[in-house]
Amino acid sequence: MDILRDADIDPAPLAGKRVAIIGFGNQGRAQALNLHDSGVDVVVGLRESSASAAEVAGHGLTVARVEDAVASADLVMLLAPDEKLATIYREIAPHLRPGAALGFSHGLAVHFKLIDPRPDLDVILVAPKGPGTALRSLYAQGKGMVALWAVAQDASGSARAIALAYGRAIGCARAGLIASSFAEECEADLFNESAVVWGAVPEILTAGFETLVEAGVTPEVAFLECVGELKLIAELIEARGIAGMREAISNTAELGATLGGPRIVDDGVRQRMREVLAEIRAGQFAAELQKEEASGYQRLKAARAKARAHPLEAARKRLDP
Length: 321
Ligand SMILES: NC(=O)c1ccc[n+]([C@@H]2O[C@H](COP(=O)([O-])OP(=O)(O)OC[C@H]3O[C@@H](n4cnc5c(N)ncnc54)[C@H](OP(=O)(O)O)[C@@H]3O)[C@@H](O)[C@H]2O)c1
Description:
Bound molecules: NADP nicotinamide-adenine-dinucleotide phosphate
Shape: globular
Number of strands: 9
């Protein structure tokens, strides 16, 4: 596998070029600030209704209306919510310079053809593997966050060089830029969100809490056992891998994990994971995301309200000093 770091990458493709960052949210804020600190000419494109204009200007960044930012840029990064990108692309397409580059931090909109970019554009992906807050704080510490990169359209012949220079300028090549594709990044990312870290882990923590409380265990104790220890195991796995984590814990914990873990995550779970992946690949998730936006995010609002009302939250708050 091809992992590139700072020394492997020429920063020149962004020299004298302007990058427009559309959106100043989780990724937009971090990427704009990192680019600026790397000496890249950045303009942040915001809607007139945006509450972020003062903050952007306060950081010494140029701020402009979305279409003006786009019209002035050589590379336009679309860093707004994925379900909004098709509409945003329709609005900015007439303002994109001939031969400009269009960039994404997630492959969904291009891979599932919510956007059909003009043939004269380079289309690139630089997807940091973590939230913008961490992307920014790592950069400020002189470190970086690993990112996947890909090219979907290479009209100029320079798309690869632009993607790599961009990944370097936002600090990701300090950790490593990994060659991928829009399809791979998108499908693996959606799979993890649906079926592993963001989808299954909170469900299993909640199910464990409910099982103990139903059996008469005090909610605070159930919370400490089933939820409170997550950070400890995450840190151990990050530092030492899953094998190293097993060696670091007590024999009691290790035997419990060895006997109990495979009973919970059995072949049925693996089969349902395959089903989730197949649905993602068939475009079902992308369609659900569009439907969710059209409904005013009804399911997301209901899920947030349900999580807030769960007894696990009351136990967490009682434990909070
Ligand atoms: N969040 C992450 O940790 C993460 C990690 C890796 C990759 N990504 C990818 O990065 C991209 C951005 O995600 P995000 O989480 O950073 O988004 P986000 O925080 O939800 O983006 C919010 C920003 O988008 C702007 N925006 C929303 N609708 C807009 C519109 N119609 N026109 C112009 N601007 C609009 C908002 O402007 P206002 O100020 O006007 O509301 C705000 O500045 C996505 O492709 C996502 O998959 C995200």
